[in-house]
Amino acid sequence: SKATVSVLNWSAAEANMLSLVLTGTACAGVAAPEEYVNTRYGTAGSSYMSYGNLVPMVAAPWGFNGWSVQTSTKTSDGWWWDPEATSMYGIRCTHRPSPWINDYGYFGVLPLTDEAGYDAEWPSVKYDPAADTTEWRPYLFAADTAYGKVEVASTEHASVIRATYGSIAAGQRPVLRVQMSLAKDAIAYTGGQITGHTNTGNAGEHNDFTLYIAGTVANASAVVDSKVVSTSVGSALLLVFAPGTTAVEVSLATSFISAEQVGTNLKEAAAGLEEVRDSSKKSWSTLLARYQINDPAATRDQLAIVYTSMYHAMSFPRFLSEKDASGAEKHFSTYKGSGVFDGPAVSDSGFWDAYRTVYSFVQMAAPEVLGRLVDGWVNAYKEGGWLPKWASPGYRSGMVGTMGDIVLADAIVNDVPGFDVEAAYAAITRDADVNPNPGDSKEGV
Fold first, then answer.
1. Mean pLDDT for each consecutive 10-residue tract of the chain (445 residues)?
2. What is the C-alpha separation between 196 and 235, in angstroms, rounded?
3. Helix/strand number for the chain, H first, E second
4. How far apart are the C-alpha atoms of 156 and 181, rounded to whole Å?
5. Taking the CA of residue 159 as centre, how many other CA atoms within 13 Å lie in the half-sphere pointing to its CB?
6. Would you give the distance in Å from CA 45 to the centre of its chain?
7. pTM, to two decimals
8. I need a labelling partner for 224 at 20 to 30 A (CA). Which of 81, 115, 153, 394 fits?
9. d(Cα 296, Cα 182) in Å, to the nearest integer?
10. In this structure, are residues 383 and 337 in contact, taking their beta carbons and an 8 Å threshold?
């Protein structure tokens, strides 16, 4: 599990050293492929040396949210992660597909203590990202900090964060800090329930675009004080626990639909950390095992490169749809800018290079998912009038061309089920036949 700089900077071409065989059953040679994934691999990069550019996320495959480690105070900057940094400023709820595209719908959670500075502008805790005890798995992040151990597991729309305090000074009390990032964001705690919302974003959002937040504290009876403090970037909720509290566990969920819907989403995490972790592990294992490594001489590093590459390819684009209380799939339209619609919503993907990599891979590895992804893109066309070039969460002007047409056309000719073929063809022909108006998502093409 100890990462090296060379692997942090790896090229996907290195994976070609291995022979891969696609299989419909579990991989016979690699019993637990998810254990070879190191989400920190491929995450190096900077604005002056752009490679990698990913962040290590705990997430469901193609999940609504990702949960990562924020290692700097650049909360509204796309470069808030550094794989070599040793300061943790929070477990960040993120939707960032690229530092150049930046993030939206984000906030942070930091377990610490009530020693001096816990209510200051930017508290942080120390951890070692390369320690053997630090786990970077798609289903679990775990690390030792100055106060004990932090663990994070995720469902599609929710997460469970647990802090176990093993090194806390006498007289100090555990604290859970939930940090918002805009002055107009809201966060509150009443009767064991966390509620809030954020309008964080950088582009591609509309005025009524809101991420709703709900949470529960497993040991709420141990909370002896709660308060909201103001910072330069937004308010922060501080939950202070009784002296002697050895563990703090919080479940958090998000929704783009409503404050009522986020309560439904929170039920995904009701079972607690272990069950959420194990369910996510099973999901990732089932998907990753569809590829068999047909090379008895494969090294652990080579296996890590292959399975981590697959993990990254199964993280984006993400589904932004939710299931209501009746189980019906709904979504807030980031393309129309308002309203809740039926069916899947998809975002956080740039077609300009993914059209010939990610979507071809998904067609081979998870064909049952490709139809839903295409259906989500067709819904974007129906609601906003165009197929996106880059989407995050709505239309973005980044990159050029209409490469999404190729993805839809390929799905049509390959008889991929699960989407409106006539609407998909209409989206393709509109790109070819209609000149965009100023302000349209296709302006500049």
1. 38 44 52 95 82 92 98 92 96 95 95 89 94 97 95 98 89 94 93 94 77 97 95 93 95 98 97 98 96 87 95 97 98 92 96 92 95 98 93 86 94 96 98 79 53
2. 11
3. 9, 26
4. 23
5. 29
6. 18
7. 0.92
8. 153
9. 52
10. no
